[in-house]
Amino acid sequence: MTASLTFLSMAQPQLRQRLNLLLVLGASLALSVVLITFRVFITQKITFVFLLWNLFLALIPFGLSTLLRLTHGRLKARVLLPVGAVWLLFFPNAPYILTDLFHLEPRAGVPYWYDLALILTCAWNGLMLAYASLTDMQMLVTRRLGWWAGWSFAAVALLLSAFGVYLGRYLRFNSWDIITNPLTLFFDILNRLLHPWQHPSTWGVTLLFGAFLLLGYITVRLLGRVNDEPMRAA
């Protein structure tokens, strides 16, 4: 009974923090949905409806990391590891939305600035979902293996995510191709690992996009820590 009360007292601030995050992300996602829906209404075209699917895919790793974070004290490694693997498989879908800026071009019937705002809100949501999800996973790794392991995990996850973004944007693979089309996926990845100089764009995109994602993630984490310090001191 005492252990249960202790767990609840520790979980309540975490639950409130998660609820606040869900409210903010929910409002931001709602803005994207409204912008896409309104565009369809005024143009009678489904030009950017695919972004709704991309946002749904971006929500999957965030949903998985949220479940793991809220239940990590009761889960064993045999559950965490496979769920973590699925999380890593879907994680690139979140920052992938940044590359949907490639679709931005002047189109009749809608101001250019409107389409820019629409894509940017979706890209922002994808990036924030990625960072929120990675924060959860890094915390789990840190609690089990330490600070260095946590940050190493975060850096590797972002670099792998950047590679996944390349596979999705340029080679048109999806997360589920590891099941539906594993041989082609494995061959294309192995070919780029064995012959890196023949695929400069692969490593250019991976390293540059990975560095951008990592620096952005560190910035967000530092901003959160700086903002928390005055509150703790008070």
Give a structural overview:
By secondary structure, the protein is mainly α. The chain has nine helices and no strands. The protein has one domain (2-233). It has helices at residues 2-43, 50-71, 77-90, 93-96, 112-145, 147-169, 177-180, 182-194, 200-233. Helix 5 packs antiparallel against helix 6 and helix 6 crosses helix 9 (200-233). The longest helix has 42 residues, at 2-43. The two termini are 33 Å apart. 26% of the residues are buried.
Summarize the amount of helix as a percent range: over 70%
Helix-strand makeup class:
mainly alpha
Number of domains: 1
Please tell me how large the radius of gyration is: 20 Å
User: What spatial form do the alpha-carbon principal axes imply?
Assistant: globular
What does the main sheet amount to?
A: none
Please, what is the average pLDDT? 90
Q: Between the first and last Cα atoms, what is the distance in angstroms? A: 33 Å
Q: Quick one: how many beta strands?
A: 0
Total of DSSP H or I helical runs spanning 4+ residues: 9
pLDDT below 50 for ≥5 consecutive residues: which ranges?
Answer: 1-10
H/E element sequence: HHHHHHHHH
The fraction of residues in strands falls at under 5%
Pfam families: DUF1361
Protein name: DUF1361 domain-containing protein
Keywords: Membrane, Transmembrane, Transmembrane helix
Transmembrane segments: 21-42, 48-67, 79-98, 110-133, 145-167, 203-224
